[in-house]
Amino acid sequence: MGRRRAREAAFMVLFEVDFGQAEVEAVFARAMAERGVEGPDRDFARDMVWGTLRYRERIDAIIKELSRDWRIERMNSVDRNVMRLALYELLYREDIPPNVAINEAVELVKRYGGADSPRFVNGILGKVAENLAAYRAAGG
């Protein structure tokens, strides 16, 4: 349950930073305290937040490429930030199995997204998982 809670807290940080242009460290500290995320789980959440932000430009380009009828700026912000987080896991965290990253993302959008969010997010992430080696090789 620790990583799930850490992942959810990381999503909350990304969502708030994306939505409100908030200062990352302050939002991170508050989110971890509110959810009681400490120790190795806090380190995991920190890597998830900063890693996602570091590679956001590449991650957003992949989302744009795969979501033909949706402009990323017009997507539901929950869907957008959950996909960013999951794509960071898929592309840059080889210690996390792809099915775990996708399942955790789908669980997050079931909780916070809209009725169509699980299918949409699962579809985009599934396309990346099908060609994961190529996406990883493309680097970034």
Structure notes:
With 140 residues, the protein is mainly α. The chain has one domain: Orthogonal Bundle (N-utilizing Substance Protein B Homolog, Chain A). It contains eight helices and no strands. It is globular, with a radius of gyration of 14 Å. Belongs to the NusB family. GO terms for molecular function: RNA binding. Residues 4-129 form the NusB/RsmB/TIM44 domain. Involved in transcription antitermination. Required for transcription of ribosomal RNA (rRNA) genes. Binds specifically to the boxA antiterminator sequence of the ribosomal RNA (rrn) operons.
Please outline the helices and strands.
Elements: H1 2-20, H2 24-35, H3 39-54, H4 56-66, H5 77-92, H6 98-112, H7 117-130, H8 132-138
- State the end-to-end CA separation: 30 Å
List SSEs in N-to-C order: HHHHHHHH
For the record, the count of structural domains works out to 1
How big is the Rg?
14 Å
CATH architecture descriptor name: Orthogonal Bundle
Compute the average pLDDT: 94
> Can you tell me the CATH topology?
N-utilizing Substance Protein B Homolog, Chain A
Oligomer class: single chain
CATH top-level class: Mainly Alpha
Number of contiguous helices = 8
Beta-strand fraction estimate: under 5%
Give the uncertain stretches in residue-range form: none
Tell me how many strands there are.
Answer: 0
Please bin the fraction of helical residues.
Answer: over 70%
Q: From the helix content, strand content and strand pairing, which structural class follows? A: mainly alpha
Major β-sheet annotation: none
3D shape: globular
- Name the CATH superfamily classification: NusB-like
GO biological process, one term: DNA-templated transcription termination
Keywords: RNA-binding, Transcription, Transcription antitermination, Transcription regulation
Protein name: Transcription antitermination protein NusB
InterPro entries: NusB-like_sf, NusB_fam, NusB_RsmB_TIM44
